[in-house]
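(Protein data)
===
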Amino acid sequence: MRTKVVLACEVCQSRNYVTEKNKQSHSGRIEMKKFCKTCQEHTLHRETK
């Protein structure tokens, strides 16, 4: 089952991206390096609750 998750920047804590993940294959939280519009650079984004 795929569920929607929100990704937040680790530097400025702004919630920039919405994506989907498969809960059966990825039980933990997602971490990706994405571009933050607020910081104007590529930073680590983590899944929020």
